[in-house]
Amino acid sequence: MKPIAIFQHTEVGAPGAIPDLLAELGRPVQLVRVLDGEAVPEDPSAFCGLVFMGGHMGVHDDWPWIAQELALIRKAVAARIPVVGHCLGSQLLAAALGAEVRRHERSEIGWARLAVEDNAVARQWFGRPGGQELLTFQWHGDTFAIPEGATRIARSAYCDNQGFVADGLHLGIQSHLEMTPELVALSVERNGHQMENQEAAGNPACSPRADVLNALQARTQEMHATLKTLYGRWVEGLAL
User: How many CA atoms lie within 13 A of 49 on its CB side?
Assistant: First the structure.
């Protein structure tokens, strides 16, 4: 069985709950540590699927591996190898599919709710009726447009495009459903000043720092249940 490649771009942007979840689903993984200078493969055919994690970078930044990952995603899409993108990864997927990625009107940071779109694709991937709200963790300042032919599956109160499915195979999720308690704590340790600045500026899409570290076990477990549903649907498109 070919492995699923997971691309990690930063320390904070670790895959969190994803490797264990995929192991539970019977799928081996291979971590590609781009943050340590590991090369981005040119050929996606060694893998049955590709997962791209987050990072502080933007898709228009001048990092050599960004262009390499965009090229890899395009090859995977052409070969019908399923792709998942989380945060920066979702923006890379959207850009590779020809959609605009730009700075959003406001940053979203901390705990938030995703609203499931009321369409058949969203209901199928989330396993829930349209309109239901799901807990998630945000940390982004950019946003993507929905690629042509793709279907939006989630929105939030402050950012319309929170998730999409393309060609029934590829999944983009703007937020961080993969976070563990340790990763939330690390995010606040490394980047808590961003949260403080946004809170001081009155940004309604930013959680109060005092609340972010509360009930981490329960909150992350709730997100992992949603993540498991999404990945359970995604692996149906993987080759053996």
Answer: 23
Q: Mind giving me the DSSP string for 73-104? A: HHHHHHTT--EEEETHHHHHHHHHTT--EEEE
Strands 163-166, 170-173: parallel, antiparallel or unpaired by DSSP?
A: antiparallel
The confidence score (pLDDT) of residue 210 equals 87
DSSP per-residue string spanning 99-164: --EEEEEEEEEEEEEEEEPSSHHHHHHHSS-TT-EEEEEEEEEEEEPPPTT-EEEEE-SS-S--EE
Rounded distance, CA 63 to CA 57, Å? 8
What domains are defined for the chain?
A: 4-180+214-237 (3.40.50.880)
Nearest to 164 by CA among 128, 120, 121: 121
pLDDT at 38: 98
Quote the distance between the C-alpha of residue 30 and its chain's center: 18
- The helix-helix angle for 216-234 and 181-200 (nearest 10°) equals 110
Is the entire prediction scored with pTM above 0.85?
Answer: yes
User: What's the whole-number mean pLDDT along residues 45-51?
Assistant: 98
CA distance 34 to 77: 21
Question: Could you tell me the two tokens for 179?
Answer: 């976070």
